[in-house]
Amino acid sequence: MGHEHHHHHHDHKSVGKNIALGVVLNLLFAVIELIGGFITNSVAILTDALHDFGDALSLVVAWVLQKTSEKPRDVRFSYGYKRYSLMGTVFISTILAVGSVIMISESVKRFFHPQEANAQGMFILAVFGIAINGIAALRMKRGKSLSERAIFLHFMEDVLGWIAVLLGSILMIFFRLPWFDPLLSLGIAVWVLYNVVRNLNSVAKIFLQQIPHGIEIEKIHEAMVAVKGVCSVHDLHIWTLDGESHVMTLHAVINPRAKAAKIKLALKEVAHRLSIGHVTIEIEYGEEDCASCDN
């Protein structure tokens, strides 16, 4: 059996620092939002505060998993600790889903029993929200790791959410629209739920060992059979540990006159070109007169 492992190295200290900054900013702002939501009597701001607490929690989990993922494989986890991140996603998604359902319920109640929200207070909080999340997004934009890119998108989504609250508060300053605040809240809660479902769907596909997104097994099969000396390829399996680290196993039937080590190397090159880092190859010998072996 042939094994080869490719690992990507990032500056773990800078990634950790950036994630820590994201956690602090998110938590501070979520507390400000919570207080501001009660003061302005805005269910939209309270809904976004819940979303920000969920974000902060996910950033804490991301930071812990960043540390955990650096642990080497051991006697209990032969593939390492990468899938811990998936458990974190399930945990955070569940918290956000429950919170979103509660906020949807509160928003619907507000439609039937409208309450005036302090539009001026909402406007001030929205300006503050755009500034804080905008600064955090710009800091994360410099990051190169996938974690930092994901967190950058989180902050950009928050900026867009606050732009919606800002526009809503301006409308409410000039027009008496007590129903507009719960409408904003519903929009934010439904958007959070949509993302939760999308994340859980991605995790389910990984646990069910679906072929990773963007990888076409037929193309890989064709490229491998095209390697000189290979008669055929079967039992080809591709899955992913965490959405980033892909694994492949296969049986290659080769010409008995061909050099097994050379063919293994060529097959691994095909896999690595297609972003598959961990490859295990079982070599089998075909017939001497196998025509396809001489391609």
Structural description of this entry:
This protein is an alpha+beta fold and 295 residues long. 63% of the residues lie in helices and 11% in strands. The chain is built from 8 helices and 4 strands, in the order E-H-H-H-H-H-H-H-E-E-H-E. Helix 1 runs antiparallel to helix 4 and helix 2 runs antiparallel to helix 3. The radius of gyration is 26 Å and the shape is elongated.
Biggest β-sheet: strands ordered side by side in the sheet: 1-4-3-2
Cα distance spanning the termini? 24 Å
Q: What's the CATH H-level superfamily name of the largest domain?
A: Cation efflux protein transmembrane domain
Largest sheet: 4 strands, mixed
Instruction: Give the tally of β-strands.
Output: 4
What is the strand content? 5-15%
Would you list the SSEs in sequence order as H and E?
EHHHHHHHEEHE
Helix content: 55-70%
CATH architecture of the largest domain: Up-down Bundle
Dominant shape: elongated
Give the structural class.
Answer: alpha+beta
* CATH class label of the largest domain: Mainly Alpha
Rg, rounded, reads: 26 Å
Poorly predicted residue ranges = 1-10
Layout of SSEs?
Elements: E1 2-4, H1 12-40, H2 43-68, H3 84-112, H4 119-141, H5 146-174, H6 180-207, H7 217-225, E2 230-240, E3 246-254, H8 260-273, E4 278-285
Parallel strand pairs: 3-4
Antiparallel strand pairs: 1-4, 2-3
Helix pairs in contact: 1-2, 1-4, 2-3, 2-5, 2-6, 3-6, 4-5, 5-6
